[in-house]
Amino acid sequence: MKNTLTLCLLLLAGILNAQTIQSPSKEISVAFKLTAEGKLSYSVTYKNKQVVNESLLGIALKDIEALDTGFTITNTENKSVNESWKPVLGEQSTIQNKYNQATFSLVQKDTGRKLDIVFKVYDEGVAFRYEFPKQEKLNYFIISDEKTEFNLTGNHKVFWIPGDYDSQEYVYNETKLSEIDNDKLNLNNGIAVKSIGGRYVVQSPLMMKSADNLYLNIFEAAVVNYPVMHLDVNVANYKMKSHLVPNAIGDKAYLQTPVVSPWRTIMVSDDARDIVSSKMILNLNEPSKIDDTSWIKPMKYVGVWWEMHVGISTWDLSGTQDASQKSVGKKPHGATTENTKRYIDFAAKHGFDGVLVEGWNIGWEDWFGNWKEEVFDFTTPYPDFNIQEISDYAKSKNVKMIMHHETSGSVANYERRLDRAYNVMKKYGYPAVKTGYVGKIIPRGEFHDGQAMVNHFNYVPQRAAEYKVMVNSHESSRPTGVSRTWPNYIAAEAARGNEFNGWSVGNPPVHETILPFTRLLGGPMDYTPGVFEIKMSHYDPNKKEQVHTTLAKQLALYITMYSPLQMASDLPQNYEKYSDAFQFIKDVALDWDESKYLEAEPGDYLTIARKAKGTENWFVGAITDENPRNTTISLDFLTPGKKYKATIYQDGKTAHWEKNPINYEIKTIEVTSKSKLKLNLAAGGGTAISIFPAK
Questions:
Q1: Which member of 124, 499, 512, 533 is catalytic?
Q2: Active-site residue, 374 included
Q3: For the chain, which residues make up each domain, given as ranges?
Q4: Which of 136, 154, 362, 600 minimizes the number of CB atoms within 10 Å of its CB?
């Protein structure tokens, strides 16, 4: 009888400690409670359906007792927020930030340590984080593990890539949760450095679909002074746990109170458009820390870049990758004064904002694979690149130059030279920099996704802001909405980009239909679309590589792959060859007042309409995977009573991503808000539409 009474009291205590937080729409609910042992747990429902079963929370600390059990709740605070803010650049001019919040203040009975758990519940999902208040019992501490669980309700379909500490440049796998297995992957994929964290470790954001047609996404937001979170998957019972990327000696994070963890996020909806259009990740980041943002502007650019990928020219001066420079290669150096002027002329002629030049600075002869600490100095050009002459020429043509800083993974070297590098940029009028982190990280033993490198990737735009420089990072950890806080962090790669199509197995047609549901949730991506000469055999008859889309889909990507920094990545002569299709790239905007997600299904298709900022001009992009698709879209987003001219760039009747990728048609029609358009997308194809008010 005594044991029964004790059990009842414990269960009653658990019930009393349980609290529910609902989204403003009341469709999403989070139940937070303490177990009988004082462990922290939560669960999530959507429209009364369980989507996350009871899952434990907690933090393991190095050399001291973990913060995962023996807690009591000392205080609970609730509030509702409904506000809006204006991004400097974005998919819409105003973003609503509406949620209900609960903060649970906890104390661990045995240690007296304090911990807060904060939940924010939006209409599209749930976010929570750990907060460590300033306290006598916990000052400096080391996180050895994070015990956050995401226990799912079924064997969902999942779009996943392996939990690689150094790279996200993978094609996605589409399987059941039970079929996740990194050991079964073909890793001959063109990625230079791989550090996979385990057989069943996957990266977030993790996009899923349940058997009853619910869409779920697990991710994180505001990763600051903390490692990236991957996920350990139990393929037998569909339970997942956070997997923090370690540093060189195996620790996860060095912290001092007061401090907070990143937000852990769970998006859920029965409409895929709610996931892909969500601004929850941005909302969870701090507001802009840059007061004067007038210098942060969108840029459309071309560059001395693709010609190296397709083998026409080289990054290094000798063309041999020979550090002695005693031999001379057969291919010319790309970054010459003469060649750069050719790109500047092309940019000026067609109204582009900027020109990127890679391979301009000394060091490319032995830049990769040697763990050499001092490779580049970021200030000294090759003798055939006259930086002053090029700068003057660009200014005379009203074209901005974009700097390239490849670090070859030597972050210590880059940080030592950062101010001198930015001074060179200011001297010669470069408003933006593309950074690169190819190779193993120096300091040796660190990973791209560890705490030290996350701090570096966040530090660079902060430092750049002092020089009024915009940053586009490649090979960085994937963004988690930090572009709200540092809006000069204008774009990042951090996924498998278009470049892989030039020299590897490439990206399958499905790739671009998944990225907006994963990588792009964290911020704009420099995917470098716009390749018109699809097959690499155009440059070398022996080459089998190709872009796995039609030409029309390359145009549509300017809409579906959001970025205020967009490259027309192909060669000038290829655009002149297909000048009618090139017109769309010249016309398409980069900054938007509105974005309408018309159709969405991860791994299948996506259709988006966007209204250019401050205008009545609309642009539509529709893409599909390897399957052809016929659909009809309504133009009811147009202003009623107005007439518009729609120019439609579509796949031709025999277009196919592999068999006939450059088959396209262009037609112009008059439309209104009552119009409906039939779109016929080829296999691996797309449609791009510009809609301007009729004159």
A1: 499
A2: no
A3: 19-85+93-284
A4: 136
